[in-house]
């Protein structure tokens, strides 16, 4: 810091005298009287205007009278023919922003300049008019602006086009009439005119996807010569590609050949823009990346720092998703470690850490050691985060990486830097068991000389959790007690709590801990003394070596199983209520930002660029929106809101999606509607819902949308009543009905897609910190184990992802990640089922040689009701062997509205159907430790089933499908399936309606024929929670009888089963009075 201060001091000594030093507004306003002199001095007038502009840009404000006097004085300067003074006049008029009454005075002069033969006057006059005119005056000068757009002088044309971009925001109807002139300007030979024209033309058409696609299609044929316009066109092209992929288009990407062709452009900016666009394509393949990576590799050796920085930053982003594609650039990036630009060097290091192999870790760490001392803390934090990721990628190298982190932890650095190192060491300890002993000792050595109270208390808390579980817990006592002697009151209090945890968990240390705690009774701080007294009385006053009571351990180590932010919100809502408060009424869904997002938001922007903002939770928004509607305000606590389900195809006249809001006794469908036709205004917009396939639902209320203008989203709601505590499911058909207001009102309707309410909608994704403890705590009382065949799948990863998606639970402990080429996998899931019932699921997957995936599913929950969690995965396209009291149904909806012009005509629009399915009753609530949650639920309400999921593309796809179907929260990362894995286990958790916890364990396996099998185990807090997972069962037995020709009696038993992915199997049993061959011909095999 000292060197920066010294540098600033030197700069101050060398600074030249500023002509604006000591300038005062009053004196400048006095000087402005020079504008009224009969003989104008252009040089002096320009100096005064410069001072006025300086004052305005420094934040000084003029009173209305002062601004008016200056403005009128400036208008007299139009009589001067000095070019420099005239340009200053244009600037001061724009900055003063005169009122509408004053604009009239200067308008005639500006319009005269706009038609002048002097091009400089024309361009500047257009810019000033853009700043000070309104829509009324714009109509009068529109003809001149159209002429300016196609003017041969590029300065005039660019001024008109840029003004049009600004006018488009306030007067879009007028600017849209200039399309022909703008289209002509796109063909201009001037690079800047073509750039501005393309930007304006795209903004005019940006709300019409088809028009944008046609624009891109016409311009990619080679009519754009300007490098700037080419870069703009590349961005528009990538936008079209992205939208086409979002709409489900398959096959070759449109316009990809154009992007690849731009990689051979002569302009470096175009080459880089095309390379970056290719790397940012969704689902980009290695083949598509290769040409872009090759170009970026050439930029790495460029003599221009900006090209090196742009290339290495882009490669850094690619390395996050396709590390193998970037490995060819490693040699070039190693040479950048010594680059003079520290931003480039930092990005090169972090990219190498992401792409390097295990064998090169030691060599890379030697280079980083010398590099770290030369960079600032903000860059060091980026390197530390990359090292943490590398350690998790190569666990066998934890000693080398841990030693490096411990060494830099002892060096000088700020709080954020030290906190990043501590967080990395803690993460490594949690994820790599072998690193626990050495990692804890490194942290203990750090707190011996730690200047940050927050970090000391964080490490002491972590020591209290992990220290007692080590082979020799006594070696940490010295470090902890030193904090009681040497630190401030906050750290001393934290150290007392840590000592108490060692005494509670390690019975042999209890006498020694009691001696230390008694010494703390004489501490100067009240908090320290109170904690010591509490723990002495709680653990046992005599300090004898006896086992600590389980309730005491729960008191010391336990934590709330619900987010504090949700508890705070519930308490605020409880204040005006007359009913007693219950913790069970608090939502388990996490509303706060993830830690990584908070950390990123807290950082100041650096030279490396800020990371993109993560999505924010909409739970609070939905709660406030629904509680403000009188019809829905009495429905109680909102349990869960689903992700939007699209009910219309892309690029149709109306865009409609539905959000399912789940309550204990009600379901509210929020239809988000957008009118994409500029000429239409929709009125009295409603949704007509057909719930003929949703027998358990009864329509209760409808809230129509009075008006739906063009491109302005609106909401209409339909509420249904359902049996309390029952995860009713079904399919809904929808029709959009409305009145079209054009020249006259016309009633119309629009058919929408169907949607379903599925069992996973009733499961909330809620993770657990320790799945094993959570599993054991649930116990086997409400446990269920099933086995399933998932059929052939592309990979085990796909099957695991499909099951996780089907269950709708939270993967725990990273078990959603399936190792490459794995033949088996275990996935841990947790969630909260509707009714706030905790559910834990353990999925065990296995893949056979035919790529058939088998899965064993074990579920535990807090009660028997949540045992039905096993049925969540069968919704729509699954097969479970158990039946549950959950109804599937379909609702047809019709959107209606009325429109008034000369007369009103009622109209309607058929919407797509949708379904209420069992997963709609399951809230995604994760558990921190799936195993503990599973054990805590116990086997009392447990159910285990096995399923065949049929042939699948990959195990990952099957896992994702099942997780989505169940609507539960994957736990411990088990939703991630390793590439080419043949088996996988996925853990899900959720809360079933009625606050019943549900846990699901899915075990997948893939046979050689790609058939995926799945075993599903469910545990919940009651039987209802376990049964909900099995509600998606699609099995049925049908008995038939008849008389065959020749009076032969025939009896038939048909046993049907639906696989999770809609493959139907049937077993046919036939008995008759004789063995006539005709019977075999009649009943096909």
Chain-wise SSE layout:
Elements: H1 2-14, H2 25-31, H3 42-57, H4 64-75, H5 83-96, H6 100-114, H7 119-132, H8 135-149, H9 154-170, H10 172-175, H11 179-186, H12 191-205, H13 209-219, H14 227-246, H15 256-262, H16 268-279, H17 286-300, H18 305-321, H19 323-326, H20 330-334, H21 342-355, H22 361-372, H23 377-393, H24 398-409, H25 415-431, H26 436-447, H27 453-466, H28 477-486, H29 489-505, H30 510-519, H31 526-539, H32 550-557, H33 564-574, H34 595-602, H35 619-627, E1 640-641, E2 645-646, E3 654-662, E4 666-675, E5 681-690, E6 698-703, E7 705-708, E8 714-721, E9 730-741, E10 745-751, E11 755-757, E12 762-770, H36 771-778, E13 783-792, H37 796-807, E14 810-815, E15 824-833, E16 835-847, E17 850-861, E18 863-867, E19 889-900, E20 904-910, E21 914-916, E22 922-929, H38 930-937, E23 942-951, H39 955-966, E24 969-970, E25 972-973, E26 983-992, E27 994-1008, E28 1011-1023, H40 1024-1028, E29 1035-1044, E30 1048-1058, E31 1064-1072, H41 1077-1082
Parallel strand pairs: 9-19, 12-22, 13-23, 14-25, 16-27, 18-28
Antiparallel strand pairs: 1-3, 2-3, 3-4, 4-8, 5-7, 5-9, 5-19, 6-8, 9-10, 9-11, 9-21, 13-17, 13-28, 14-15, 15-16, 15-27, 16-17, 16-28, 17-23, 17-27, 19-20, 19-21, 22-26, 23-28, 24-26, 26-27, 27-28, 29-30, 30-31
Helix pairs in contact: 2-3, 3-5, 4-5, 5-7, 6-7, 7-9, 8-9, 9-12, 11-12, 12-14, 13-14, 14-16, 15-16, 16-17, 16-18, 17-18, 18-21, 21-23, 23-24, 23-25, 24-25, 24-26, 25-26, 26-27, 27-29, 28-29, 29-30, 29-31, 29-32, 36-38, 37-39
Subcellular location: Cytoplasmic vesicle, COPI-coated vesicle membrane; Golgi apparatus membrane
Domain Clathrin/coatomer adaptor adaptin-like N-terminal: 26-539
Membrane topology: Peripheral membrane protein
């Amino acid at each position: 810091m000292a060197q920066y201060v010294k540098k600033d001091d030197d700069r101050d000594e060398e600074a030249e005298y500023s002509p604006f030093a000591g300038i005062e507004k009053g004196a400048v306003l006095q000087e402005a009287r020079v504008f009224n002199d009969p003989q104008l001095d252009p040089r002096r007038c320009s100096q005064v205007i410069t001072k006025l502009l300086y004052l305005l840009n420094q934040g000084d404000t003029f009173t209305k009278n002062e601004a008016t006097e200056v403005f009128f004085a400036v208008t007299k300067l139009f009589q001067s023919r000095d070019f420099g003074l005239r340009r200053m006049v244009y600037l001061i008029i724009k900055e003063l922003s005169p009122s509408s009454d004053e604009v009239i005075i200067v308008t005639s002069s500006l319009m005269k300049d706009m038609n002048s033969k002097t091009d400089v006057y024309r361009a500047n006059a257009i810019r000033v008019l853009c700043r000070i005119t309104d829509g009324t005056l714009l109509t009068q000068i529109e003809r001149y602006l159209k002429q300016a757009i196609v003017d041969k002088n590029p300065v005039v044309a660019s001024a008109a086009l840029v003004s049009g971009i600004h006018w488009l925001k306030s007067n879009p109807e007028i600017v849209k009439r200039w399309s022909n002139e703008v289209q002509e300007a796109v063909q201009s030979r001037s690079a800047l005119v073509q750039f501005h024209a393309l930007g304006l033309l795209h903004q005019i058409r940006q709300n019409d996807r088809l028009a944008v696609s046609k624009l891109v299609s016409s311009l990619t044929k080679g009519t754009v010569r300007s490098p700037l316009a080419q870069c703009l066109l590349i961005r528009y092209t990538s936008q079209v590609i992205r939208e086409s992929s979002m709409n489900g288009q398959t096959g070759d990407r449109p316009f990809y050949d154009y992007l690849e062709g731009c990689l051979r452009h002569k302009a470096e900016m175009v080459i880089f823009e095309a390379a970056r666009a290719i790397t940012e394509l969704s689902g980009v393949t290695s083949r598509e990346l290769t040409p872009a990576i090759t170009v970026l590799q050439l930029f790495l050796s460029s003599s221009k720092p900006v090209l090196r920085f742009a290339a290495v930053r882009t490669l850094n982003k690619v390395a996050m998703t396709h590390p193998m594609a970037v490995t060819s650039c490693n040699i070039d990036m190693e040479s950048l470690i010594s680059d003079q630009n520290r931003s480039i060097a930092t990005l090169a290091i972090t990219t190498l850490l992401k792409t390097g192999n295990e064998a090169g870790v030691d060599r890379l760490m030697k280079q980083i050691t010398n590099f770290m001392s030369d960079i600032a803390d903000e860059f060091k934090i980026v390197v530390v985060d990359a090292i943490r990721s590398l350690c998790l990628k190569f666990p066998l190298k934890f000693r080398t990486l841990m030693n490096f982190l411990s060494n830099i932890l002892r060096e000088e650095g700020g709080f954020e830097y030290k906190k990043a190192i501590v967080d990395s060491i803690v993460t490594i300890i949690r994820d790599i068991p072998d690193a626990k002993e050495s990692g804890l000792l490194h942290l203990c050595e750090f707190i011996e000389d730690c200047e940050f109270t927050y970090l000391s208390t964080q490490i002491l808390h972590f020591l209290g959790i992990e220290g007692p579980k080590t082979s020799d817990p006594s070696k940490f006592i010295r470090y902890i007690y030193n904090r009681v002697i040497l630190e401030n009151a906050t750290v001393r209090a934290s150290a007392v709590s840590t000592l108490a945890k060692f005494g509670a968990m390690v019975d042999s240390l209890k006498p020694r801990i009691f001696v230390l705690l008694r010494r703390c009774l004489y501490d100067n701080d009240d908090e320290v003394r109170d904690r010591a007294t509490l723990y002495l009385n709680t653990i046992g006053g005599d300090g004898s070596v006896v086992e600590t009571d389980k309730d005491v351990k729960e008191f010391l180590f336990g934590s709330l199983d619900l987010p504090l932010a949700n508890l705070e919100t519930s308490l605020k809502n409880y204040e005006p209520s007359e009913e007693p408060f219950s913790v069970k009424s608090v939502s388990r869904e996490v509303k706060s930002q993830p830690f990584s997002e908070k950390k990123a938001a807290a950082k100041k922007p650096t030279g490396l660029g800020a990371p993109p903002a993560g999505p924010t939770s909409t739970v609070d928004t939905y709660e406030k929106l629904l509680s403000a509607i009188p019809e829905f305000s009495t429905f109680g606590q909102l349990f869960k809101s689903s992700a939007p389900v699209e009910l219309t195809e892309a690029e149709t006249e109306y865009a409609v999606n539905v959000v399912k809001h789940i309550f204990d006794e009600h379901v509210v469908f929020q239809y988000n509607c957008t009118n994409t036709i500029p000429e239409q205004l929709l009125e009295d917009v409603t949704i007509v819902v057909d719930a003929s396939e949703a027998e358990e639902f009864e329509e209760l209320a409808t809230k129509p949308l009075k008006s739906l203008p063009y491109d302005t989203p609106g909401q209409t709601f339909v509420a249904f009543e359902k049996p309390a505590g029952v995860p009713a499911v079904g399919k809904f058909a929808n029709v959009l009905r409305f009145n079209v207001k054009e020249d006259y009102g016309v009633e119309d309707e629009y058919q929408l897609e169907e949607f379903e309410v599925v069992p996973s909608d009733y499961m909330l994704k809620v993770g657990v910190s320790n799945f094993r403890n959570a599993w054991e705590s649930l116990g086997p009382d409400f446990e269920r184990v099933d086995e399933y065949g998932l059929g052939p799948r592309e990979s085990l990863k796909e099957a695991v992802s499909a099951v996780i998606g089907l269950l709708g639970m939270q993967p725990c402990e990273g078990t959603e990640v399936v190792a490459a080429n794995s033949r088996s996998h275990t996935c841990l899931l947790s969630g909260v089922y509707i009714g706030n019932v905790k559910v834990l699921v353990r999925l065990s997957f296995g893949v056979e040689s035919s790529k058939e995936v088998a899965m064993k599913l074990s579920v535990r929950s807090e009660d028997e009701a949540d045992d039905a969690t096993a049925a969540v995965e069968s919704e729509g396209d699954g097969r479970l062997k158990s039946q549950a009291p959950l109804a599937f149904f379909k609702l047809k909806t019709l959107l209606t509205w009325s429109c008034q012009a000369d007369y009103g005509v009622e109209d309607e629009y058929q919407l797509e159907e949708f379904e209420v399915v069992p997963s709609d009753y399951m809230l995604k609530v994760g558990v921190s430790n799936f195993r503990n949650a599973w054990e805590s639920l116990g086997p009392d309400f447990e159910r285990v089933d096995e399923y065949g999921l049929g042939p699948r593309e990959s195990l990952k796809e099957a896992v994702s499908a099942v997780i989505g179907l169940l609507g539960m929260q994957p736990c411990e990362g088990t939703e991630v399936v390793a590439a080419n894995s043949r088996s996988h286990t996925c853990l899900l958790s959720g809360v079933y309606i009625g606050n019943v916890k549900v846990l699901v364990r899915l075990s997948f396996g893939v046979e050689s024929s790609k058939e995926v099998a799945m075993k599903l185990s469910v545990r919940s807090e009651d039987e209802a929670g376990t049964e909900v997972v099995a509600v998606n069962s699609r099995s049925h037995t049908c008995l038939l009888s008849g008389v065959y020709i020749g009076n032969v009696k025939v009896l038939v038993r048909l046993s049907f089963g639906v696989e999770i992915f809609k493959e139907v199997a049937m077993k046919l049993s036939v008995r008759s009075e004789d063995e006539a061959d005709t019977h075999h011909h009649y009943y096909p095999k």
